UniProtKB/TrEMBL annotation:
Pfam families associated with the record: BPD_transp_2 (PF02653)
The protein's name: Monosaccharide ABC transporter membrane protein, CUT2 family
One MF annotation (Gene Ontology) recorded for this entry: transmembrane transporter activity
Subcellular location: Cell membrane
GO CC terms, sorted: plasma membrane
InterPro entries: ABC_transp_permease
Superkingdom of the organism of origin: Bacteria
UniProt keyword list: Cell inner membrane, Cell membrane, Membrane, Transmembrane, Transmembrane helix, Transport
Membrane spanning stretches: 12-32, 44-63, 93-115, 122-142, 162-185, 213-231, 251-279, 286-310
Lipid metabolism keyword on record: no
Organism from which the protein derives: Roseivivax halotolerans
Keyword Phosphoprotein tagged: no
Length: 324
């Protein structure tokens, strides 16, 4: 007869709690509303979560490397405004690479400060949050941006198009997740990211260039933000200059929900995708139940606390503190 100890159960819940919670949420909302798992609703949720999800993919690299990036929300506003403005000035074919280049420059600057100058990532990215927001307002003159000829541009394909019935934002999100998942799990660079986040000093003595690894993680994060800005701009062909404000916290919540440790060295792209979907489906499920939209903020807070608890429990192998 096989017996399972409380310690083993606690360890299993700590390590796989996010997947168990996801399954329970899906079952509960499906029983409450039959429309919850309809094809149209699932596509709608994943599509609306694509922008958040793309940003979370890049932040996953940063968090696993032992750092934070709180600048992604304001950086997304910047990339969205820039590509919309340049669309009418130089055309979408040139506007898109120009926006990517400018966004990557911001990521490179942050990566230099955190990676090479060894400044605290929380302080640097919190400061950059305000600085990039100011840069966005300066660039736009405080005005929102709209494309003049919304009917005659192919630019809308990124946010409004579909391939074989699947919305383009979903395909972009899942394709990027598959690519970055392979990079993180199957390449030498991915192993370096885990090593730097797990023990930066040991990684340095092992010959890993810590500064270069951290710098590259911030470049990846900025690249993902540029993709998210492209989708956002293409979806509405216009935007407020504060469109990304506050998203940095939702992105970080999704990454933590996916099991990435704020202490570094732990996390996967697959589970980040699950974390993004949990946030998206919970918000959708609450609305289908007829609850006010602001109720989701309380639920999200509870889920974040649960995720942090499971993260700490996974490290000590127990759900409860031995000194509690």
């Amino acid at each position: 007869m096989v017996t399972v100890s409380r310690r083993e159960i606690g360890s299993m819940l700590a390590k796989q709690g996010i997947l168990i919670a996801f399954a329970l949420f899906m079952i509960g909302f499906t029983l409450a509303n039959a429309k919850f798992l309809s094809v149209d609703n699932v596509f709608s949720v994943v599509r609306s979560s694509a922008i958040l999800g793309v940003m979370a993919l890049g932040v996953t690299f940063v968090v696993i490397s032992g750092n934070l990036d709180l600048s992604v929300g304001s950086m997304m506003s910047f990339s969205t405004i820039v590509v919309l403005d340049l669309h009418d000035k130089i055309g979408p074919a040139l506007a898109i690479p120009a926006m990517f280049a400018m966004t990557l420059c911001l990521g490179a600057f942050i990566g230099f400060l955190v990676g090479y100058l060894r400044l605290n990532s929380l302080i640097v990215t919190l400061g950059m949050l305000s600085a990039i927001h100011g840069l966005t307002l300066t660039y736009s003159g405080g005005q929102n941006m709209d494309i003049a000829d919304k009917e005659g541009t192919w630019f809308s394909v990124f946010g409004q198009g579909a391939i074989l019935g699947v919305p383009t934002p979903i395909l972009m999100f899942l394709s990027l997740a598959a690519l970055l998942g392979l990079v993180l799990a199957k390449t030498p660079f991915g192993r370096k990211v885990y090593a730097v986040g797990g023990n930066g000093t040991a990684a340095t003595f092992s010959g890993i260039k810590r500064a270069r690894t951290v710098f590259t993680c911030y470049l990846i994060s900025a690249g993902c933000v540029a993709v998210a800005g492209l989708i956002q701009a293409s979806r509405s062909l216009g935007s407020q200059n504060t469109v990304g404000q506050g998203l940095e916290l939702e992105v970080l919540a999704a990454v933590i929900l996916g099991g990435a440790s704020l202490m570094g060295g732990v996390g996967t792209i697959f589970k980040t995708v699950i974390g993004v979907l949990i946030l998206g489906f919970i918000q959708n499920g609450l609305l289908l139940l007829g609850l006010p939209f602001y109720f989701q903020f309380v639920v999200t807070w509870i889920i974040i606390i649960l995720a942090v608890w499971l993260d700490i429990a996974a490290k000590r192998g127990k759900l409860w503190s031995p000194i509690a």
